[in-house]
Structures are given as C-alpha cells and as structure tokens.
Amino acid sequence: MEEKNFIEIETQIITTHSSSLESFKKLRTNLMYTDNLKVISLTSSIPDEGKTVIAFNLAYAFAQMGKKVCLVDCDLRRSSLKEYLMLTKHHDGVSELLTNQGKDGLNSTNIDNLYIMLAGKTPPNPSEILSSSHFTDMIESLREQFDYVIIDTPPVAAGSDATVVSRAVDGTVFVLRNEFTSKKVAKRAIGELTNNGGRVVGVVLSRVKASSQDYGRYGYYGYYGYY
C-alpha cells in the first residue's frame, strides 16, 4: 500500500479530550504489556457507547510515544470516524479495498506516526466482505507495516461484523458506557465474542461522571480492567 493520501486532523479533536490523556496512557500501557497484542479491535454492545472516540485516542496515544500506528474504520454499516474527524472529502477505504474498487485506502495524517484507513462507501454485505480472505490479507499487510493496528468495529448488536473481526485480530477491547448499558446486555455481547473465537483482553468504562473523577468537566474515558 502506498502512503500517498493525506488527512488533515483538526487540533480540537485532540484538545477536546486532553483531560482524558492519563486514562488513555493507562489503557495504552495495559495493552502494551498484554502478550501477543499488536492488532486490536474495539467494539461495544450497542451504539453510542464511545468506542470510536476511544479507538482514535488510543491510536493517538500510541503514536505520541513514537509507535507507527494505523487506525482502521471497519464499521462499514454506520461509520462515525469520518464525522468525528470532521472530514468532508470522500476517501476510498476498507470497502473499496476489499472489493477491488479502490487501489489504496491508507492515508497519512498531520499527526506524526498516525495513519488512517476509513470505512469507505457502505456496502450491501459488510459481514461477507469482512469474512473474506481479502480482509485477512489486509490485516496481515498492515501488521507488517505498523507497530500497532487499531480497528473500530460496529457494536455487537448490529450484526456479526464485530465477531468476525475479533477472530482475525490479536485481541478485542470492549467499551461499556457508564449508566447506559445493562450488565445483562454487556455480558451477552462479550459472551458472543468469546464463544465465537474472539479474545476479549479488557473493558473500558466510558462517560464516567465528572463528579466522581478529577479528570475535567466532561468526565473521562477510563480503563476498567480485564474481563
């Protein structure tokens, strides 16, 4: 893959979550000391639990320490990374690459060491595309090029996509929004991942109330622990 495409990331995306920096450093450290963990996916039970924000900030945290990182948007059903990064221009991404409709989905950024691959156009058959050998080949290619590959996937409730990706990566981080998702729903989602060959390496508790932590007015994203 050639590194010819470029994405300009607005500085406010980073500074907005600067109060959470220590939490992401803690998450980064825990993942670094987890055995055989280089390609990492993130998912949640249901939408709006904060997984995309956490995926970006985790990738940024690794890039900050000099690691070459690729953030991949594999939420082919309802991608939110492009909106989060406030991008208006279309970039070929995972869907085009896996269906041979685009030559290159890899984009360099204005952040040192951080590369991004967007989801691309919404395909009619996301699970089938992600289950193909083309996806496995893509993961292996990225594994060879980068120190860490961070993959944002759809919520488990959206279909089998997150489970399919979890089988192809080294480990999955499960995002759980505080006072939003029931324990029953979360346990069912984690069980679906693990029962189908996924390796859940930890849980991140998101949207903790600011009153309970000293991490700023809007709360923070904290590492919750191993499952």
From TrEMBL:
The keyword DNA repair does not apply. The keyword Kinase applies. One of its GO terms (molecular function) is ATP binding. Signal peptide: none annotated. Coiled coil: none annotated. InterPro entries: Bact_polysacc_biosynth/exp, P-loop_NTPase, Wzc-like_C, YlxH/NBP35. Keywords: ATP-binding, Kinase, Nucleotide-binding, Transferase, Tyrosine-protein kinase. GO terms for cellular component: plasma membrane. It holds the Pfam family ParA. This is Non-specific protein-tyrosine kinase.
